[in-house]
Automatic annotation (TrEMBL), chain B:
Protein's name in the database: ABC transporter permease
Location of the protein in the cell: Cell membrane
UniProt cross-references to Gene3D superfamilies, sorted A to Z: Periplasmic binding protein-like II (3.40.190.10)
SUPFAM superfamilies named in the record: Periplasmic binding protein-like II (SSF53850)
Organism of provenance: Nemorincola caseinilytica
Membrane topology, from the record: Multi-pass membrane protein
Transmembrane segments: 21-44, 172-193, 237-256, 302-320, 340-360, 394-417
Amino acid sequence: MKQREITANAQKTHVCDLCAIICIYRSVSRKSNALHIFCRLSLVNYTSNKVPMISIRNIVKQYAGHKALSGVSMEIEKGKVFGLLGPNGAGKTSLIRILNMITAPDGGEVLFNGEHLGRKHIEQIGYMPEERGLYKKMEIGEQVLYLAQLKGLSRHEAMRRSKMWFEKLQIQAWWNKKIEDLSKGMQQKAQFVATVLHEPELLILDEPFSGFDPVNADIIKNEILELNRNGTTIIFSTHRMESVEELCDTIALLNRSHKILDGKVTEIKNSYRNGTYLLQYAGDKAVAGPDAPFSVLDEKLAGTGHSMKLRMNPGRTSNEALHYMLPQATITHFEEVVPTMNEIFIRTVNEQVNK
Amino acid sequence: MNKILLIIQREYLSRVKKKSFIVLTFLVPALFIAMFALIAYIAVKGSDLGEERKVQVIDQTGVFEGKLQNTATMKYVYTGGSFEQAKASFLKEGYNYLLLIPANEGDVELLSEKNPSALTIESIESGLSRVAEARRLKAAGIDTAMLAQAQRRIAVKAKQITEAGEKDAQTYTAYAIGFLSAFLIYLCLLIYGTQVMRGVIEEKVSRIVEVIISSVRPMQLMLGKIIGVGLVGLTQFVLWIVISVGLSIAGGSIMAKKVTQSQQAQVQQMQQIAEDRKEIRQMAKPDNAAQTIMQSIESIPVAYTVSCFLFYFLFGYLIYSALFAAVGSAVDNETETQQFVFPITLPIIFTFALAQSFIINNPDSPLSVWLSMIPFTSPIAMMIRIPFGVPGWQLALSMFLLVVGFLITAWAAARIYRVGILMYGKKASYKELIKWFMYRE
């Protein structure tokens, strides 16, 4: 976040804030094209805003019987929540495993922060797999410490942070309990703590809400959003479309090892608008004649009045539809029907299947 | 490297802290001591433990009457009468056996309700033979005392000639040490190898493995587990030895007193019984026997043997546990391990079976030498051979091959492991394993 502000200022002055101060202090004139003439922020940091967190370029992954990923490319911007969607077997887990360096791709490359993805990035990635698990016989606190130490934290630091997190999620009383003695929700919370304890830049969550009751799912969702506000990039693999609309900035849709759709959620939804509106009115049934600027898709009784789904004829606007209906009925409700992500998901996948 | 240490630490502590570890650590030496105490007790009091058996003897030759030696378990009662009469009535009269000696001394029959034990038959046979032999010798005019003198056994004293000079060869001690160390290695390969396999299955089943290998390489996890479990084994061993030695010293001194007393009693008995067998007296003299054992133990190069044992224990364990880890990664639960575990344990069991029967008797035969070179059989085969003396170059070559064998095995196992741990619900076949092995990183 801090970096972004510096960059924003720098666009005006061409020198970062710190260097500008040093310039004044040393009474040196500002060089117009150098951002960091004195401070140690590197060029990579300067461009960090434009370099995506993850660039996936033409990834191919082949297993004995089938192709898991065939030439998949996508970019994941910094500080965003990215939704990785797709039906079962589409290749999501394969892609996630490649990002985690659990497996290597057969072709293509992955850039992390503009660099080739390698072992040194492991400590900047946090991963919560869909199939979750912890050592059953191990104490929960010890377990979280162990996993955090494997990610490179010192024991002391891991202790400090996990105490804080346990307090925050109200599971501190269970620190010395064995996993097998805990409820499922409690285990999941511990797992979440273990995932985020090393404060990764990139958090990869595979179906993070499965197994949580609504209350705990909400707690975890808020924690995820808070991490995101503090600058963590989040990749989020799920089937649950309502959470996609709620959380994700951008998505990519995988099906049968291919990427079939990606982009900003709002843009995707706009591109799937097709002039369909929902109109509700009180009183008797209205009649839409042949001169109406729309065609009626569906009409039914709703409470004391009626509900009508209509599609605008080409070139006509929603105002014209209202204008046409106003003399006939008392309009109580009028809205555009924008397809939900769920509909887009199903439609796109089916289109591809038919192809 | 740091991460491997973390993994080793966890694997080690999580096992050492378990109740089962503590129980096993104290129980096994106690059981061992109890076992030895029982053996010693039976050895000392064995003759008193068997119940007395009555043998009805009908001797038509008249030669054996009163000459068969009664022992603690055998009592001969001489009766007259015909065979048929005796056969009809002996069960009712409370005899266990009926011994029929016809006039011509051949076709001696022993009748009983149950099958007689081999030991019983043998003791009766030797009793009869001895009496018959003495009678025949007497008939031929040979003095039995002179004969005993002439028959005196010659004891061979085995000595090894080495560059350092002559020394006493301790064949029996070599036997014992070779067998014991081979047995321990055999046991450990199976026990701790299986523990590694269980650990891998546990991680796979609880699905934690995916989280861990997003932090460390699969190879690190595998090696960390193997080394951690190996250290647990080593700890257990050291504790067993310390506890056993402690208990033995405490219990041993008490036992030794009793054994000596009863042995002396036995010796006196034997002296009376077998006056003509003087060598028995010699053999059974407790002081001499104890001295001999002490001497032969001292003559074994302890540091050399122990370090060889540790080396073969360690690398034998490493090579097999890598295989066990690969098996653990290939299955979803323990019941599926059967088909893979069998071929792994086969060379262990095969070598151990051969070790007891063949290698220990022919430590320098070509087969023994070959077995002590092949990495999968050398930990057991070489430990049998070492107390008998192994040429330096053979030992060096065997160790070298074992280390190389371990590196290759660990590499191959890791290739299967890294794929296997991520495969769920797929029944692995050998074909599948080969495919996994061929996958690129």
